[in-house]
Amino acid sequence: MAGIRDVAKLAGVSTATVTRALRDEASVTPETKAKVRAAAARLDYVPSAAARALSQGRSSLLGLFVPDIVNPFYAEVAQGMADRAAEANYHCVIASSHLNPERERQLVTSLHDGTLAGLAATTVGTDESFTSALTGQRGPLVLVDRRPRGIRAPLVRTDNRKVTREAVGQFFAMGHTKVAMISGPRDFDTACQRLSGFRLAYKDAGLPLRDEYIRHGHLGEAGGLAAMRELLALPSPPTAVFCFNNLVTVGALMAIRTAGLKVPGDISILAFDDMSLFPLVDPPITAIAQPAYQMGRAAADLLLRQLGGEKSPADVVLPATLIERESLAPPGFN
Amino acid sequence: MAGIRDVAKLAGVSTATVTRALRDEASVTPETKAKVRAAAARLDYVPSAAARALSQGRSSLLGLFVPDIVNPFYAEVAQGMADRAAEANYHCVIASSHLNPERERQLVTSLHDGTLAGLAATTVGTDESFTSALTGQRGPLVLVDRRPRGIRAPLVRTDNRKVTREAVGQFFAMGHTKVAMISGPRDFDTACQRLSGFRLAYKDAGLPLRDEYIRHGHLGEAGGLAAMRELLALPSPPTAVFCFNNLVTVGALMAIRTAGLKVPGDISILAFDDMSLFPLVDPPITAIAQPAYQMGRAAADLLLRQLGGEKSPADVVLPATLIERESLAPPGFN
């Protein structure tokens, strides 16, 4: 198997330059990088994690911790992160806590030891032992989607509050007055920001918001199903519902279907986070799309920059977009 | 932080028993395991990967290699695997090659060094250098869904051929004679098995199969979209299509929608692999559901048994089920 010396010889550069070029460091010109990459590809050169760790004192693995890999949002973040990492000859592994803070803490602890060169994380844990485990990681840390209390690290996110305020405003513009939200856990800052946008839209419309129209703490399809059942059972059920994420939306749609109601005739639905099947659902679902793949790329980029020596890069805020389909209609529409 | 001695003391057993109990070994009684787990939970004891590797010479990480984590089938396999692994105090990391054999080979090579205690893999690579990298892994290996040529390791799969033969038979029972299949790459044995089941259904019906009704090599939504466009452009397009996986189905449905055609009025659709949104699509999609979560649990189980000393456990074949919804109808149905 070819070694770094063979690559250096073929490319006509030093082994140090090969290392820096394959790590995509700014000190190497694009021409040299191209030359080194071509030589590495031709010689089938793969720096192993072990070899890299031995020679450079660090691993070539980046980690991504997600709460729920079944949610395609995180799967797309993972894909973007892996693609960007591969460009700099890093590889990615994903760990999913299945929304279980205890498992998440164990994962962080168990990978504490230098297995990972850096870590990008969307976390569900909020207690102190967790945050200290997270900040005690050896390599750089990047947060994705939300910032747990007390953790300072660059964050990649979208402007949750603003896009929610504008999108939920459409319900009121159509004449809805009974608008509900299925929200996430109170200690998720994304849920808080989306809820804050939701409250601002109510304020913009000059309407009072009933407490019973906000359902907290729901995650996944089962959470969406339960919350929508509760909403439909209210003495005065809402005519429009904003769902705080995609899987919650799927559960909510199942509850509406089971109750024999129609979207948007009986109830309008707006989802946060798009899904590739939303355009094919009956009716196609209007959704706020986050650029998940780009968020993953940005997270890898922030890690690579820190691995390259940059201190505390700034947060990255990417735009989310409302994709209008057919799940919103004026109340009483048929 | 509590150590293994503290757990042993609280549970009233030896440290060796703690280790064996937390690894879920058969030599420890269920009562002792429960006692040890309770003590570990009470003391908040987490054996770190490093500590475990040091004390036992091996890691507590199991790896799952998948071709495409955006496909919810693999995400559910990952969830099942992580849940089963957690019961034995192992953690899981997932690596996705994004259907790129080169990246897959690099991932295998880069994790070659004992980072992982064991590896479960659904692979896309088929060449020799890849299979030798895979079989050169240090810990036990388990295959999920398909077996690359030349690799001997226990496999977790469903009975692809049988369930496909029966399900595709429904098209013929309804009176279809022009039935097509969007298949995967020729060197995927799952694609081969499903194609074989498809051919058998044709044979059962006593009908000739036109070559143009089999589209090879398509993966992902883009592949399904392209293949369905080709099928619709044939001089004699099919009236029913079997899609070899879920994402291919999503792409095929997009092509049908774009062409202004209706399912099942103009064309019937049968999917391999279910999705949680399939019941909500217009129309709800009939699908062959694999028990993805259970397959992940079985894969972890096979790894744990090998880590516990068992030599070459047998393959695990789990049943797949046809879930009848509304995307099949007789030809010319409206």
UniProtKB/TrEMBL annotation, chains A, B:
<protein>
    <submittedName>
        <fullName>LacI family transcriptional regulator</fullName>
    </submittedName>
</protein>
<keyword id="KW-0804">Transcription</keyword>
<dbReference type="Pfam" id="PF00356">
    <property type="entry name" value="LacI"/>
</dbReference>
<dbReference type="Pfam" id="PF13377">
    <property type="entry name" value="Peripla_BP_3"/>
</dbReference>
<feature type="domain" description="HTH lacI-type">
    <location>
        <begin position="2"/>
        <end position="56"/>
    </location>
</feature>
<dbReference type="InterPro" id="IPR010982">
    <property type="entry name" value="Lambda_DNA-bd_dom_sf"/>
</dbReference>
<dbReference type="InterPro" id="IPR000843">
    <property type="entry name" value="HTH_LacI"/>
</dbReference>
<dbReference type="InterPro" id="IPR046335">
    <property type="entry name" value="LacI/GalR-like_sensor"/>
</dbReference>
<keyword id="KW-0678">Repressor</keyword>
<dbReference type="GO" id="GO:0000976">
    <property type="term" value="F:transcription cis-regulatory region binding"/>
</dbReference>
<dbReference type="GO" id="GO:0003700">
    <property type="term" value="F:DNA-binding transcription factor activity"/>
</dbReference>
<keyword id="KW-0805">Transcription regulation</keyword>
<dbReference type="InterPro" id="IPR028082">
    <property type="entry name" value="Peripla_BP_I"/>
</dbReference>
<keyword id="KW-0238">DNA-binding</keyword>
